[in-house]
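User: Here's a structure from my thesis project, written as structure tokens. My advisor, Dr. K., wants to see whether a designed sequence matches the one we expressed. Can you design one independently, without my sequence as a hint?
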């Protein structure tokens, strides 16, 4: 059995960021083999992740990057269980590491991003597992990316909500400024789609049926139910689709009208909204 010194424990702690007692225990179990000890710590993190898999992650931190030419945006959100963990340095450093990896590799999906290998030989997934072992909480990653003529971004003041919004026909308008206003609208009003063409058929059918049932409950004639339901559907489009919503900063215009006033024909092509715990 190898003698485990304080220097050995400190070395492993520097390598992994794990607690002193955890490092000593891992080194003892690994008979002084540092790589084996790192594996032991990682497996401990996976056990914690498995045990806490059903726990709610309502806290966390959102980070965003928009490319220098403004045509691509990437947003990562790392969720945890408690507010105190969301504020610690190594948690936020991991969020930045994940975002940097996404930008560096231009990862298209969460799965692709998780498999990115860093210079230390660990994947992003392994770094998340390692931190899980250190803090003892479930961590959950969300990743979205968006490409457009111009991409704008916004992170809410609580750092738990973020938006990427794609614009086209920007012209000479300040894309970052108008995009930020639109992104703030998306955070606040939670639209389900850009416009009515983006609403999936199942949602449309459900809204029509709800409209019919409401009209029927109010005693309206069966022959009028379809027309009444279509009217309610149009109200749904106005309230729930981005371009048709009233602008929260100026209720005299819709988002579509706001964009057109900044540059003729400017519109939103797509958006991504991410919210931790909401």
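Assistant: Designed independently from the structure alone:
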């Amino acid at each position: 059995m190898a003698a485990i010194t304080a220097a050995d424990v400190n070395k492993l702690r520097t390598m992994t960021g794990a607690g002193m007692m955890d490092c000593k225990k891992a080194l003892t179990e690994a008979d002084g083999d540092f790589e084996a000890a790192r594996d032991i710590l990682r497996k401990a993190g996976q056990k914690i992740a498995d045990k806490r898999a059903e726990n709610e992650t309502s806290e966390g931190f959102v980070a965003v990057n928009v490319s220098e030419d403004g045509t691509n945006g990437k947003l990562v959100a790392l969720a945890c269980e408690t507010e105190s963990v969301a504020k610690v340095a190594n948690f936020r450093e991991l969020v930045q590491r994940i975002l940097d990896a996404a930008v560096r590799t231009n990862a298209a999906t969460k799965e692709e991003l998780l498999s990115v290998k860093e210079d230390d030989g660990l994947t992003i997934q392994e770094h998340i597992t390692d931190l899980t072992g250190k803090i003892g909480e479930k961590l959950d990653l969300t990743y979205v990316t968006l490409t457009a003529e111009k991409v704008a971004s916004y992170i809410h003041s609580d750092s738990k909500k973020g938006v990427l919004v794609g614009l086209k026909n920007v012209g000479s308008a300040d894309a970052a400024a108008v995009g930020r206003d639109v992104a703030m609208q998306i955070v606040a009003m939670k639209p389900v789609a850009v416009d009515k063409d983006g609403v999936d058929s199942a949602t449309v059918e459900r809204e029509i049926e709800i409209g019919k049932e409401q009209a029927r409950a109010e005693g309206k004639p069966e022959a009028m139910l379809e027309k009444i339901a279509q009217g309610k559907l149009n109200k749904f489009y106005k309230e729930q689709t981005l371009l048709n919503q009233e602008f929260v900063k100026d209720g005299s215009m819709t988002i579509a009208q706001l964009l057109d006033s900044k540059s003729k024909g400017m519109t939103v092509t797509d958006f991504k909204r991410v919210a931790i715990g909401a």
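When you compare it with your expressed construct, this may help: Residues 34-51 form the longest helix (18 residues).
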